[in-house]
Amino acid sequence: MSEFTLNAQARNDLGKGASRRLRRNADLIPAVVYGGEKAPVSVSLATREVAKLLLNDAAYSSILELNIDGKKENVLIKALQRHPAKSFVLHADFIRVVAGQKLTTMVHVVLLNEETCVGHKTGGGDIFRLATELEVTCLPQNLPDAIEVDMANVELGQIVHLADITAPKGVEFTALAHDNNIAVASVQASRVAAVEDENQDQPAAAAEAETEEK
Fold first, then answer.
1. So what's the pLDDT on residue 182?
2. What is the reported pTM?
3. Which of 88, 135, 140, 154 is close enough to 174 for a disulfide, judged by CB 3.0 to 4.6 Å?
């Protein structure tokens, strides 16, 4: 079901002190697995293995196969606590994925056809990503790797809202269910062009001012 796997070990030594010892002495990351009808389980993960997994952006919103002491569970990354300065993971929360039960999670946004976008190629505008990820609700087997937004026909000054995007089969946008039609991307006039136009106007304005003084 998943192309991502992660090994873990159950742990009974809990608390902040135990977590610090895990990170410092064993190069392990403390984590918790919860959800479904099972009780929460505290586990530890190899720091190197987690770092390698997170190099792939798709892992953040994909179903992972978590191997806990030989017992496999399908999970999603629910939250990652990172070091404020060095950004490495200090703690992870995973939520269980139950077959036949809908889940709600965040999925990354991918913009397609940026180079051929009408507002960019013809209109000279800049493309802005207004939402980097979107919350979706779906069954586990319908969870997409990303939400694709086709920018090919987006014109200068146009904003792409959530309702303008076709959701993958079996996927619902959570925001729309709450009547929140959020902005996802847009094409706006280039800031560089605006600055150049402003600079070009300055000599003329200065000449007019000089004429008035005379």
1. 97
2. 0.73
3. 135
